[in-house]
Structure formats: C-alpha cells, structure tokens
TrEMBL record:
Protein name according to UniProt: Uroporphyrinogen decarboxylase (URO-D)
Endpoints of the signal sequence: none
Source organism of this protein record: Acetitomaculum ruminis DSM 5522
Length: 334
C-alpha cells in the first residue's frame, strides 16, 4: 500500500525506506493564523507598519514584503534605550476561528498541520533597527542586544503556546535567516553568545508542546550546524547548495534532517534547457540523498518562472520516486 505524504516524509525523517524522495513542505498544510496575518502588508508598493512598528514595502510582483528601515523610521534608534522604544505586540484576544476551522479540516493521517512563525530573533533585531545598526550593536552593545532579544524570545514562546492551544500544530516552520549566500551575518562566537541560548529555549518550548521544530534559513549556516543539532533543531529547511552539504551530513552524523540542495537560482533563469533543469534536480538527489534524512527541494520552495517550475516539479516527482526504488535503505545505516 502506498504511503501517505505524511508517512513518506516521516520515513525520510526517521532514516527509513520511503516511497519517494521529495520536499517535506508538500506533506504539510500551513495554517494562516491571526498572529501571522496581523503582520501581513498589502502588495501595493506603499509603506505599511507591522505590529512591531517596523515599516514594510511589498512591491507588486515581488515574492514578499521587505523591511524598509531608515534612521528616521527605525523602532530602535538607540539600543541603550531599547526598553523605552520597544513595544511588544500582544498575542491575546485574536480571532482564531478561521485557523481552527482550517486545522480541523486537515486529515492528520495524510498531512502535517504546520504554521509559519516568522521574524526570528536575528531577523526581528535588524527589522527593528536596520541591518547596519544591528551589526554595530551586536558587536559593541552585546549586553543590550541580549536583553532586548530575551524579551523577543519570550514573545516567540508565547506565540508557540497560543498557537498550540488553538490548532495543535505538528510542525512549527520557524524563520530566521542567519546568513547570506556567502557566510553567516554574525561571527560564530557572537551568534553562539547571543542568539544560540535564546533560540534553544524556543526550540525546547516547541518540543515541550509536541511540535517538530523546522528552522528555515536559506543561507550559509555551515559554521553553526553542530550547534543547531546541540540545541535540538529537528529539520533545517532552506539548505542552499553553497553549503558543503556532504560535509554537513558527515559532521552532524545524521542528527539534522535537511530540506533543500537544489540550486534554485541556477535553474530559475531564462534561456535554460529542460535537460539542464532536470539534471540539477538529479544532481541534488544523487549527491545528498545517499546519506539519508534528506528532502530534495529548492530552498525557497519554487521556481518563480512557471515553465521552469513545472519542469523542476516533474523531475523531482519522477526521479525522486525512481531513486527511492533503485536505492533501498541500508537498515544498518540511519
């Protein structure tokens, strides 16, 4: 009997034989909750404030909204006065009716129920003060940054608890990009001193609430992957090919499931052939799936060009199944 999408994803996650190799995200019903929706801004190219007071712009045709932080509109203008300037939104008193109804309609034997928890510690910090000021403050005012991020950590924990009470998610899809396509944004020692212990509390709370913790960071995280294992991150979603993925699989000893590996920007271009797209999908599966616990996908989910995306998905679904059939799991190696 064929596995459901959830069963197949759990087989990969547990290092067992799946029916096919594919994107974990295809097995998850993401529920739009009122906390997430309260921060959405219109796709009109105009400036809008989110619940934290950060200015965002969502340009027509762009994949998402981006913070537009200046010295004039920054929420935190002086990190030594963050307690006066930071206003943490409340997660209470929101209408969960739509989210509850959507979650109740999901057959959990077939799909995971998940929710997107955006604006992690690092992202929220630079959304509040701007990227350059955040870099400066992490280096020169670490105590103040740690104190401010502790308050944000407490907020994220309240989000997890409130969401668990209403829709009982199987998975939290937690967003916090820690780097670029070239490196981490912060020196690893700074990340370990400030971000790591606070993020560990968030991860532990998710586990206490019965959730799989899937961390999205479509960037370089290679310098801290062993730390990610240490603090209990279950799945790293967004693993770009610029990371040395086989090395990461080796040093994490199979303890960190990963989603990604297909070089999206490489195949989401004009004047590319169908075979070149298919070849990149096969390369990722052939290279990364042998170590196990790997979900091949484009780190940001899709190609934005429709034709490219159709070819990518077709090859992923076809070759992901062929690979599973032709490469049965060695039960002695998980």
């Amino acid at each position: 009997m064929a596995m459901t999408k959830r069963e197949n994803a759990m087989a990969i996650y547990n290092g067992e034989q799946p029916d096919f190799y594919g994107d974990f995200m295809e097995a998850m019903a993401l529920i739009p909750d009122p906390i997430l929706l309260s921060d959405l801004v219109p796709q009109d190219g105009e400036e809008h404030l989110d619940s934290w007071g950060t200015t965002y712009i969502w340009q027509p045709g762009a994949p998402g909204a981006h913070p537009h932080v200046t010295n004039e509109n920054a929420v935190i203008k002086d990190i030594t006065k963050w307690e006066e300037q930071l206003k943490v939104p409340s997660v209470k008193g929101l209408d969960w009716t739509m989210a509850e109804n959507m979650a109740n309609e999901v057959n959990r034997d077939e799909m995971f129920v998940g929710f997107l928890c955006g604006g992690g510690l690092f992202e929220r910090s630079h959304h509040l003060m701007g990227m350059m000021n955040a870099f400066y403050n992490y280096m020169d005012y670490p105590d103040e940054m740690k104190a401010m991020l502790t308050v944000i950590k407490d907020y994220k924990i309240e989000v997890l608890k409130e969401t668990a009470a209403h829709i009982h998610p199987d998975v939290v899809f937690f967003h916090d990009d820690w780097g670029s396509k070239q490196n981490l944004f912060l020196p690893p020692d700074v990340w370990r001193d400030i971000i790591k212990p606070l993020h560990a509390e968030i991860v532990q709370t998710a586990h206490d609430l019965g959730m799989i913790f899937m961390h999205h960071a479509d960037c370089i995280c290679q310098p801290v992957v062993e730390d990610m294992v240490e603090i209990g991150i279950d799945i790293w979603q967004g693993v770009i090919a610029q990371n040395d993925i086989p090395y990461i699989q080796e040093v994490t000893k199979g303890k960190l499931a990963m989603v990604g590996g297909i070089d999206g920007p490489k195949i989401d271009v004009e004047n590319i052939t169908e075979e070149e797209i298919r070849a990149e999908v096969r390369r990722a599966i052939d290279t990364y799936c042998p170590a196990g616990r790997f979900f091949p996908s484009i780190p940001n989910g899709i190609c934005f060009r429709e034709w490219n995306n159709e070819i990518f998905l077709d090859e992923l679904h076809k070759y992901g199944r062929i690979y599973a059939q032709e490469h049965p799991i060695n039960k002695a190696v998980n």
